[in-house]
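Progress note, sequence design subtask.
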């Protein structure tokens, strides 16, 4: 008999349910008796002992369902060691609940912050297996996270729709794509949607270069320009500031987000009409795309295999087209940034895409 705790933590994404279903189906087909404790709303469920006993049927019919049947929430790692408003030690509470329920393993589906906490719990003696979720694809130790491809599809479709109206009106259009720290999603959706300019957190932009590209396009007969801007895109001037000053600048900014600032700068410099579209959380919503259904199911199956073998302390990841187990202490605390010198950036530039650098 295996007693398995499971939780989904952080911002949700597509295929969380598919991944959990993959774990549970694998265990069910092994013939091993299992008890599943589903903690509700992320680590909060583990801290406060809120869980539901689940069985195979609860995971049936959820392959295509977006969101997470367990609910999710953010429990920032930087406050994990701070007592809650009632003085409760959160780490102690999680350990106590885990041991009280005599769990064999806790399966955590999460992104960066969630992996830091998962690794902390491992250090505190809990058996942990994790699965890499996030639309940002910024988790260290895996070439791909589930949720990413589905989000690329949605952001691309948004750019596709903008394309037709941009062509009719001859305007400059900005589509703001999710990703505060990394630009994987913006780069992929931007390239797939045929964006002319792509602004990423990893490549600080010069607004003069952005304007130059728009003017060049116009000179060559293109009436419109599409710009894909990551939430965390940053200008060269801002990039020179300390992190503290960057934060202060963002807090004091009159713009709701960087896209509106870029739009205003373009308008001031060229007098052109600029429109901003923010697909926002739609990028994390709806059904997982077929790629993510397959990918998350595979990761879930491999996690089930690790549990059956009693191999703990790993994230199930994907490297060089193979599913691999990555030690949690290698994953925790690192972000997988886009390398501005990578071949994909070089190829995008060969295609004529400007990064404003
Ligand atoms: O981490 C995934 C993500 O969707 C980011 O791309 C985005 O910046 C952030 O979460 C939004 O967070 P929230 O849902 O808390 O507003």
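Output:
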């Amino acid at each position: 008999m295996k007693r398995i705790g499971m939780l989904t933590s952080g911002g949700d994404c597509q295929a969380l349910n598919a991944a959990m279903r993959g774990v549970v189906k694998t265990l069910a087909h092994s013939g091993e008796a299992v008890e599943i404790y589903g903690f509700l709303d992320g680590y909060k469920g583990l801290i406060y002992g809120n869980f539901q006993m689940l069985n195979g049927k609860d995971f049936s019919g959820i392959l295509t369902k977006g969101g997470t049947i367990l609910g999710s929430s953010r429990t920032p790692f930087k406050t994990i060691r701070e007592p809650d408003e009632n003085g409760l030690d959160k780490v102690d509470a999680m350990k106590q609940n885990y041991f009280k329920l005599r769990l064999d393993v806790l399966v955590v589906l999460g992104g960066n912050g969630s992996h830091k906490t998962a690794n902390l719990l491992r250090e505190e003696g809990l058996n942990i297996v994790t699965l890499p979720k996030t639309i940002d694809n910024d988790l260290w130790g895996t070439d791909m996270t589930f949720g990413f491809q589905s989000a690329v599809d949605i952001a691309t479709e948004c750019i596709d729709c903008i394309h037709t109206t941009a062509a009719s009106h001859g305007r400059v259009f900005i589509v703001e794509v999710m990703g505060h720290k990394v630009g994987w999603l913006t780069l992929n959706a931007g390239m797939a949607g045929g964006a002319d300019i792509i602004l990423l957190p990893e490549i600080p932009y010069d607004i003069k270069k952005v304007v130059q590209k728009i003017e060049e396009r116009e000179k060559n007969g293109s009436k419109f320009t599409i710009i894909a801007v990551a939430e965390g895109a940053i200008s060269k001037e801002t990039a020179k500031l300390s992190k503290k000053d960057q934060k202060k600048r963002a807090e004091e900014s009159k713009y709701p987000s960087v896209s509106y600032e870029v739009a205003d700068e373009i308008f001031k410099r060229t007098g052109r009409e600029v429109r901003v579209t923010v697909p926002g959380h739609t990028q994390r919503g709806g059904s997982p795309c077929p790629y993510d259904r397959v990918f998350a199911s595979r990761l879930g199956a491999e996690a089930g295999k690790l549990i059956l073998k009693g191999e703990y302390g790993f994230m199930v990841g994907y490297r060089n087209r193979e599913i691999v187990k990555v030690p949690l202490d290698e994953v925790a605390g690192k972000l997988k940034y886009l390398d501005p010198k990578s071949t994909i950036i070089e190829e995008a530039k060969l295609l004529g895409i400007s990064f404003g650098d």
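The chain has a mean pLDDT of 97. Work on this subtask will continue into the next period as scheduled.
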